[in-house]
Specification:
two-stranded antiparallel sheet; about 190 residues
Length: about 190
Amino acid sequence: MKAIRKCRSVNKTKQEKQSSMKLSVGWETDRRIANELADFFMVNVTPAYISYGEIQCGRAIDARRWSPRFREVLIEEFMDSISKRLKIREGRRIAVARQQGRVVGIAVIGIHLKAINPYVVIEDLVVDRRERGSGYGKQMLTWIEEQASNMKAVDLFLESGIANEDAHVFFEHHGFKVVSKVMTKKTF
């Protein structure tokens, strides 16, 4: 029992220490960082992350395998999503979370403010796997929610791979609810 308590107190101390450090989250405006972000993404996701979005855009071959062009597809997407303009009413943006200058999280955000019911989509939210449980994901999600609110978005959506159960628990814990299932069938 004492060993368990000691382990919990050590983990809590680490979490409290990391949470007390200043995390900076903001829209990325420097396209030169696209390669670094692609590498960060690849190191911090597993095939459980794959959803229909990864299949549709060519990141993945199917629900279990990444594309051989995974890195190149990410770089192209990230280059297209990084903008110097801070106000965008339509399109994708990338938000980056940094802890003492080091990238600890990225989010790809779809902005759809011209829709009948303006909405924002969290297309990707990836936290450094070594930092999960530190509160960085929560801080990023809070920042994204504030941005969506400031944009007057009515809804905030996301999609998650069916096997990405840790993410499901995280998002449900933060108020997200399942509203649909996405199904696929090969046509050839």
